[in-house]
Amino acid sequence: MKKEVKAVLIGITIGTILTSGLTYAKNCTEMIEVSYDNIKVYKDNVLCELRDVNGSTIEPFIYNGTTYMPIRGTANLADMQVTWDGTTKSVYLWDEMVPKGTIFLEECPPYDTHKCDIYLSSKGSKFEMSGENYSNGLVMHSYTWAGECYALFNINSKYSNIECTIGHARGQKRKSVSFIVDGRTIKEVELENESLPKTVSIPINYGLQLKIVGDEGIGIGNITVQ
Question: DSSP for 113-179?
Answer without folding.
Answer: EESEEEE-GGGT--EEETTEEE-SEEEE--SS-SS-EEEEEE-TT--SEEEEEEEESS--S-EEEEE
